[in-house]
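Comment thread on ticket #2218

A.B. wrote:
> Attaching the input chain for the structure job we discussed in standup.
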Amino acid sequence: MSNPLPSDPTPATPATAAPGTSPEQPWPVRTVARKVAGWIDRLGAVWVEGQLTQVTARPGTGTAFLVLRDPAADVSLTLTCPIGLVRASGSSTAVPITEGSRVIVHGKPTFFLGRGTFSLRVDEIRSVGIGELLARIERLRKLLAAEGLFDRERKRRLPFLPRQIGLITGRSSAAEHDVVSNARHRWPAVQFRICHTATQGALAVPQLIDALETLDRDRETDVIVIARGGGSVEDLLPFSDEALCRAVAVARTPVVSAIGHEPDTPLLDHVADLRCSTPTAAGRTIVPDLAEETARIAGLRDRARRALAGWVDRERRLLDALRARPVLADPYRDLDRRAQEVGTLRQTGRNTVLRALTERKTEMSHLQSRLTSLGPAATLARGYAVVQHVTGGPGSGARAPVLRSVADAPPGARLRIRLADGAIPAVVDDPGTT
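C.D. wrote:
> Ran it. Output below, let me know if you need it in another format.
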């Protein structure tokens, strides 16, 4: 139930102040108390469900005082009721009430003027039966499943060898002993950070959530284990609480649920990343076995050694087979054969070139002989001469025309008579003289 009085600590302005009040004309405390009591008194009776966290029923008094807490939030109400409602011997219809009980109460809100306190005056208390609790757990299970909190895709794998294990459990509990002893028996060097909380009753859920958030913020913690021994349905109710389930779902660190015995399956088992049937099973699951891992490493080392030896033998046989091949047994044989082929080809090429040169030389000799026999030098050697008319002076470089007729040599003309062994200069005296 919300507080009807304003929660803002700032002074009220004239626009929001109650009618009839002002800084000059304030209400006395009794007036405010009576008005608040009048407002609350106008509220009708209500049915409220919650968990009892405190039951005070002193002998010799007619009134019992109780505290009713909302299991899903940090909100509580003070209850007052006739003492007969909380004592089983008070009447034949009385319900036995203890701290941690889930109950439904019927009462009317009341404001006590003298103390200025609010409470719920209860005239009927009903225990929430096992069947109703199981039905509510089933409804919550369907709701969380529909939201995907149970899906396998969102579950994270646990680290193979966590640096530190966060353990949430009751103080000096058998669950703590089972988890720690079994884990250290398998891996003696494992480190734990243990958070002791209530594991049943009204204070269990907030303490469990606080411990979970603390361990989730610790960077050294690689996995979180929530462990508790077996118990009744009422004892295990905190581990089916919606707030705790949602806190586990949003945690960044993998969470292991180890609640109760094999048949116990609170909702935490479905939300956690791994469910272990017992705390003992959790201790054996979260860390590897040192002896098994040592034996596995030795086996892998032997397998690697045998595999390497087999590979070396196989490669050695391959090398031996390659070395036994002719090309590797006498690698110079092919080189010598190729060298002989190159020498033969080179000699053949040389002979071909020499033969071609000889043929060309012979051809050139024949051509030279033909040219010699047909040239003017051969004609001159047979006694002929060539007469040329010299038109320029010596060294002029002018071409001397060959005389072809007597008429081409007038008197006084300078001539050049070319013989086989040289040339004779001459001058024409009388062209008519024969």
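A.B. wrote:
> Thanks. Noting for the ticket: Residues 183 and 286 are 7 Å apart (CA to CA).
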